[in-house]
Every structure is written in structure tokens, then in C-alpha cells.
Design goal:
alpha/beta; 2 domains; Rossmann fold; globular; single chain; about 20% strand; nine-stranded mixed sheet
Amino acid sequence: MKVLMIASECVPLIKTGGLGDVVGALAGALARGGVQTAVALPAYESVLDKFPAEPTGLDVAVSLGDRRRSAAVLKAAVDGGVPAYLIRNDEYFARSGLYGTAKGDYPDNAERFAFFSKAALELAAATGPWDVLHCHDWQSALAPVLNRLGAGKQSAKTIMTIHNLAHQGLFPYSEWPLLGLDIKYFTPKHLEFYGKINFLKGGILFADALTTVSRKYAEEILTPEYGCGLEGVLRERQRNLRGILNGVDYREWNPESDNFIKNNYGPGNMAGKAACKQDLQQLYNLPQRPSTPLLGIVSRLADQKGIDLLLDIVDQLLAMDLQLIILGAGDEKYQELIAALPAAHPKRIGVEIGFDNALAHKIEAAADIFLMPSRYEPCGLNQIYSLKYGTVPVVRATGGLDDTIEDFDPLSGKGNGFKFAEYSGEAFLSAIKRALAVYVNEKAWKHVVANGMAADFSWERAAADYLQLYRQVIGVRAAAAQLRA
């Protein structure tokens, strides 16, 4: 089987978030399972500056309205030698940011990613045949549309994976000529969305199958609360929609081999975790008391992540005998409020505004409890990292957080964390208090920690689920939505 991933990010070459992690790790896991896998992505300036890429001798050219634009195809490698085809057009991709700057999105993003989707299909035609084109998020969502309408020059089936439905690729009608599609497809039955072009809507309607990154999120996006205006479209395709939980790379996130942490440790010997806790307390000049519960947060500072709930309860929380470490960056209002907390609560809290991968590892290893009060969370990775590091998650029961965390029951001994359902500071604080009540019971705490460390959320498991889906799509053509002329 041959699978080409089409995506705007892929680790280790480029990432801004979970999308890049998923594409790189999934490609590697599929390849290790015997699937002939490759990735197509833009040749961003930062990729070419940092990673070796060889010319392939292949050039691709596509039409954008009345213009022709071309790209050279370079080749790099990800995860164990998986080929990564880099589509190089410096006019579009030789920029400091992927999608925009601090001032906002690039104004020509419709043109940039229409070009990318078209060029990726030309690349697929030149390097194929491929059995599956696996497209990720709005940046590649035109590929299933163009492929089904005959511009793909091949018979490959298409999979559209939605990583975060809130990002859809919305552009004004004036950009329609870039797509090269008949105007009859600019209707509510197709790519039109309240007078705009919606790239992701097109991918949802025209792909042979749809996935998203957890079972619960696949259910949530069918509702008005989480559907971001596309719940009706998704309900049309519900029989072709499947939630496949993301995996994590235990080669990178494993306390037994982690090079970023003070001491390595594992289920059979947890002494190293205490040393990691002391190291982080010292780093932030917090009292080095082993028995004081240390809570950790590594997060974007944004509404989606429930930072408003944290700020609602932070004074009550830090009035307790505990310590809190926060690492994150995001909305300026949240950055300013959180940066001011250490002055208001000395010796209780440490804050780092920004992102530091080494520090993220240190927090996972050092913390006793990890907080994720997300408003919504398609999958989430930090709660899964936390389980491996013996750090007990407190999460809101949404999306992948609900799928991966089972509320701990002291009577039965089952469960690996603590959940709350209502989106309120009161419910969040109550869940933290339940966790702290178990923390002081050494026997029960060891039980919940052990449950979490025994869990397996490896990419091999997720890759097996994707492989099963690929086989289904290839074997039996998925029923696409009824597309009216």
C-alpha cells in the first residue's frame, strides 16, 4: 500500500502545534508497519535553512486563475527515513511565518494554499500511483475536491483529517478564480459558506472518508456547540466519519530515557521523580518540600484551553498548601495576567511566558498533578504525556481528554485521573480538590499513578486504526455526499 500525506506541517521539519506532531509520527509509524509512506509539504524558508534537502529534478506547475505558477520539488527525510517532498515556491513559502505574522494572517493565504493543494496533486501524479492521499486540515483540503472533480489525474482515494474544526480556511468570493472550479460549486451544497469560500468544507464534502483525532470529538463536532457552523455538513457525512485517537511518541516522551529531566525513573523505581520535583522547585525558587503537591500547566494561553477558568480560581487555589508552575504563550491579555501572578503569590507559583521544550519535559516529570481545563480539546497530548510520567491529570471531560482519562474511583481502584464536566471555575476547583484528597493517601495515590503509567497510547496503535481505514476505503468506495451540479 502507498500513502501520501499532504499537510502544511510535519515534525521534525516544521510545526506550530499538534498537527505537525501527528503528521510526522503517523508517517513514521505507518512506515514501520510496512506501508510505503511519504509526506508532501511546503518548502518553508525555515525548513530549508535547518534541514538538508536534495533536488529531485522534478518541477510541477499549476494554474491559478489566468496565471501559471511552478515549484521545484526537493526531498528530505523524516522519522526513520520517510521521504518528505518539499514543494518550493519562494514567492509563497520563503517567509518568516507559516500562516502569518503577529499582526495577522497573510492576505494571500487562499492563493498560497490553493497552490499547495494543486501542486501536491501534480506531485502525486508524478510520483505515484498512490492508493491513498491523506490530507490534513484546511491547508490541504482542496486536494480531495480537485481530485474527485478530475484534476488529480489519478484514482487515489482521499482521507480528510480534521485536527481542529475551528480553523476552516475561510476566504472571500473574489478568490474563487484561484481554485479553477466551475461556479456551480460555489453554493451552500458545496464550498460556499455564508458568502465565503470554505476550504475545509470542500474537503469534508468531497473526501472518500473523514477522520478526526478522538472518538469523543467526532461526536462533539456533530453538535452546534462544537460544530463551528459545519455540524450539518458533518452530519451528512456521519457514516464516513471516524474518530481515531492520536498517539504519542514514547521515544521522546518517556521518563525512563528523557534527557531533559534531572533523573530518569519508571514504574519500578519512582525515586527519580522526587529528584525532578526538587529540581523544578529550585529552578523557580519555591520551597523544596517533597510533600507539598506541585501542579503543572503547559498550554497555549487561549480561551480554548480554559485559561479563563484557571484565572477564576487561581487565588483560591494558591491559598491552599500547594505550588503551581505555568509554561505557555498566547493571547496578550492572558500572558499579562499570568505573568503578574508570582508577585501576588510569592513562593507559590512559577511562570514562564513562551515555549521551552526542555522545560515542558521538566514540568511533566516534576509535577504531581497536571491541569487541562479545556473548553474543547480535539485530542490533547499533554494529558497522555502526564500519564507516562506518573503525573495525574485533572481535565475537563471533552474531546480526547474524555477519551483518555478515566475518573479515579478510590473504592474500586480504577481510573487514571480526575475529570469535571461543567465549564465553570467551581467545577474545575472541585476536581482539583478531589485529586488533592487522594494525594494525601499515599496508597491510593500510588494506585492512580500506576494506572496511568501502565496505559499505552503509542502511535503503533493509532497507525493500525488508520491502516484498517485505508483498506476499507480502497476496498469499498466510500459513499460521498450527494454533489449536485
